[in-house]
Amino acid sequence: MEEQALQFVRRGEIVSLTGVTPTRTLLEVLREDLQCTAVKEGCGEGDCGACTVVLAEPAGQGLAYKAINSCIRLAHSVHGMAVWTAQDLPASEGALHPCQQAMVDCHGSQCGFCTPGFVMSLFGMYQNRVLAGQTISRETAQTDLSGNLCRCTGYRPIFDAAQQMGILPRVAVDEPAVRAQLRQIPSASVAAYSAPTTLAELLRLRAELPQAQLVAGCTDVGLWVTKQHRQFAHVLDVTRVAELRELRHTPDMLSIGAAVTLHEAYAALVADRPQLQRFAERFAGLPVRNSGTLGGNVANGSPIGDSMPLLLAMGATLVLASVRGERRVALDAFYTGYRKNLMAPDEVLACIEVPRPVADEHLRVYKISKRQDDDISAVCLALNLTVREGRIASARIGAGGVAATPVRAPKTEAALSGQPWASATFEAAAPVLSAEFTPISDMRASAAYRSSVLGRLLLRYWSEEQGELQLEALT
Q1: Is the dihedral angle over the CA atoms 70, 74, 75, 76 positive or is it negative?
Q2: How far apart are CA 125 and CA 146, in angstroms?
Q3: Same structural domain for residues 368 and 287?
Q4: Would residue 187 count as lying in a domain?
Q5: Total structural domains within the chain
Q6: What is d(CA 123, CA 66) in angstroms, rounded to the nearest whole number?
Q7: Which residues have C-beta within 8 Å of that of residue 423, sequence separation ≥ 6?
Q8: Same domain, 351 and 372
Q9: H or E element: which one contains 324?
Q10: Sign for the pseudo-dihedral over CA of 332, 338, 342, 348
Q11: In this structure, are 325 and 246 located in the same domain?
């Protein structure tokens, strides 16, 4: 089969590149092959946002826009999409786009290194919010810009720019023209980078290529490329598989396809459980949540991955698929060791099934990290207790950052189950939780701190639950 070029739409044209190896990043292709030097490499790990670009693909009658980190995004993953960088926004006569003009008017740039990344996050906000008729609040700006770091401005003028751009003369993308160009791009057929579009095709390739590196957003595998300089003989990208991009609702279950982005997955979880909104925003910066997938987070199995403690507390089940069929595995039985799990070489994670909330559920999740936003947890703790007739009928607790895998806390669950819904119960259980694990000391926290904070979080959970109940009683 003749190998097709990597193709995407940029600046009103179809860019066509050959000889792009499977582990080249989008940042490398933009800077080195296309001389687009507005895209900066800061951290090379998706933390600082200097490399932010915006991708778009067809959705309904228009386009869906996502700001992403190009430094950890494999170039071939954007085949058949449209790409915007800060160099692509000014009009042909040189007029700045509103998100750029607002940054100028509000003095949002000092040293300037981070500025193109901020501009692109603002462009994503402009396309998704301003053109949809939304007014940008300070809180909205802070949430959508959480994946961009600046050492100079203190952020105030950048937030001013986010609010200012909506009152400038509007500029719209010619979406019909972009969609027409995207339709001209054939499906990719690159020898070492496979991006199937159906589950059947994915399972066939997985059976044929069990040693291929699976990627599902690449927010972690991208670090293996940029920091560890790993090379892969073959990459198998699951993010184009239609069945894996589905969200399905039943009265009892929310089924989240493994290729659903973290942003979309958490939006669905928050729709069922609004108390998860702040945790969803703190999970990672928006560009990471726009690229990363819930399935990738779960299958990767990092002990400091924030999704798994929450999913453990909610009693999630995984659906594993292969050419041999499907099987269901409880998440708390999935991990066998550090970044090891029960998946056979020919299997992929197809979806995550999450039970819908029940009336007497009390769910909270806590992320403890050095930075409030866009940081990795030292400890993540999720608590889900059901209370009936003044007693704890059941308890599920998920924890991250305290063991080689994401884990439940069975001793603490046993200490809580059947006990009165009372302060004394939590005071007695807090030392049990503190002693349940043997965490390590590392750059994020000491072992002693991690053990101590677990018990304190259990007491915080009780205090916050009581505060909410008292507020409800007054309304």
Answers
A1: negative
A2: 12
A3: no
A4: no
A5: 3
A6: 10
A7: 462
A8: no
A9: none
A10: positive
A11: yes
Q: How far from the centroid of its chain's Cα atoms is residue 436's Cα?
A: 29
CB 365 within 8 A of CB 377: no
Q: Taking the model in full, what pTM does it have?
A: 0.93
Q: At what angle do helices 447-474 and 423-435 cross, to 10 degrees?
A: 160
Does residue 268 share a domain with residue 134? no
Parent domain of 448? 361-474
Q: How does DSSP classify residue 21? A: -
Residues 6+ away with beta carbon under 8 Å from 229: none
Q: Establish if 188 belongs to a structural domain.
A: no
CA–CA dist 105, 103 (Å, integer): 6
Q: By the 8 A CB rule, do 161 and 108 touch?
A: yes
- Interacting residues of 13 by C-beta distance below 8 A, sequence separation 6+: 181
Report pLDDT digits (tens) over 418-444.
Answer: 999 999 999 999 999 999 999 999 989
CATH number at residue 333: 3.30.465.10
Distance CA 435, CA 132 (A): 50
Residue 421 in any domain: the answer is: yes
CATH of the domain at 408: 3.30.390.50
Q: Same domain, yes or no, for 212 and 76?
A: no
Mapped onto helix, strand or coil, the DSSP state of residue 133 is coil
pLDDT digits (tens, 9 = 90+) for 367-423: 999 888 878 899 999 999 999 999 999 999 999 999 999 999 999 999 999 999 999
CA 388 from centroid of its chain's CA atoms:
35
- Is 60 exceeded by the pLDDT of residue 472? no
Instruction: Give the N- to C-terminal CA distance of the chain in Å, as an integer.
Output: 68
Check whether residue 413 and residue 443 sit in a common domain.
Answer: yes
Give the H/E segment covering residue 7.
strand 6-10
Please give the Cα distance from 283 to 289 (Å, whole number).
8
Q: Please count the other Cβ atoms lying within 10 Å of the Cβ belonging to residue 278.
A: 12
pLDDT tens figures, 94-114 = 899 999 999 999 999 999 999
Contacts of residue 93, defined as CB under 8 A and 6 or more positions apart, other chains included, come to none
The phi, psi pair for 396, rounded to 5°, reads -130, 125
Q: Is 234 helix (H, G, I), strand (E, B) or coil?
A: coil
287 and 322 share one domain: yes
Look up residue 348 and give its DSSP letter.
E
Regarding whether 365 and 351 lie in a shared domain, the answer is no
Taking residue 45's Cβ as centre, other Cβ atoms within 10 Å add up to 15
Instruction: Determine, yes or no, domain membership for 291.
Output: yes
CB atoms within 10 A of CB 251: 5
Q: What is the pLDDT of residues 232-288, one digit of tens each?
A: 989 999 999 999 999 999 999 999 999 999 999 999 999 999 999 999 999 899 999
